[in-house]
């Protein structure tokens, strides 16, 4: 589902429901998000829903420093795998300056339904802290389309460490790319958690790309599929003609460069419904 600029209101003491409430209200589904002795409210929610193996100790230490610089913020992680949590907890306690910081780190269970998992990003996260050296891939796209900005390190040299960097460039969110590495990564995340005006601007800019018509190039799957099909046909024609292997350039018609429209989406949806009914396309 596309994101919304406004969060659906959640009644006090109401049980968690997907798509309802702010990340601060939902607080990573914890009854004591800031610790059992705290009566204060959560100020900001950082998340990472990737496998633990995508991170390294340096990345985890960055997250801890971010928490310590943003009062009453929490970090929401995925139990993936749950067996690793005791070791991670031990590492956290050994790394933090203030032991109460560990009370602000929480875990949610794995969600088998990918659509519910995507919806949880919007309900639980203000910002995603990207993994390094192995970025989020599908998980990152789920977060972005839920309207959750991603802060990423952009000093990696391989594809796996630059996935979110590329996404942010196409989406016009280069300000979230930490070209300078660890310190800049932390600074960006801290600013988002303490500068509410800048956070609203960044989040609003991201959500606008998801809702725009004609569709933004990053989200325009019909346009991507059309161009990919064209590229495959060009490759096949090149092969059967006996030509040497070379670069393939897909050139769009001027009428297609503006992106898919509502009419395009409705036509594709009609074809999908016909296909599910067994009708001929």
Layout of secondary structure:
Blueprint: H1 23-26, E1 44-48, H2 57-69, E2 73-78, H3 85-95, E3 105-108, H4 114-124, E4 127-129, H5 138-145, E5 150-153, H6 163-170, E6 177-178, H7 182-194, H8 196-211, H9 221-240, H10 262-277
Parallel strand pairs: 1-2, 1-4, 2-3, 4-5, 5-6
Helix pairs in contact: 2-7, 4-5
Give a verbal description of the structure:
The chain has 281 residues and is α/β, with parallel strands linked by helices. 43% of the residues lie in helices and 9% in strands. It contains ten helices and six strands, in the order H-E-H-E-H-E-H-E-H-E-H-E-H-H-H-H. The protein has a six-stranded parallel β-sheet, with helices on both faces. The longest helix is centred in the last third of the chain and has 20 residues, at 221-240. The two termini are 26 Å apart. The model has no long low-confidence stretch (mean pLDDT 94).
Q: For the CA atoms, what is the radius of gyration? A: 21 Å
The residue ranges in which pLDDT falls below 50 over 5 or more consecutive positions are none
- Mean pLDDT across all residues, rounded? 94
| Proportion of residues in helical segments | 40-55%
User: Main sheet?
Assistant: 6 strands, parallel
Structural class: alpha/beta
Which word captures the global form? globular
Strand order of the biggest β-sheet? 3-2-1-4-5-6
Which key features would you list for this structure?
about 280 residues, alpha/beta, six-stranded parallel beta sheet, 6 strands, globular
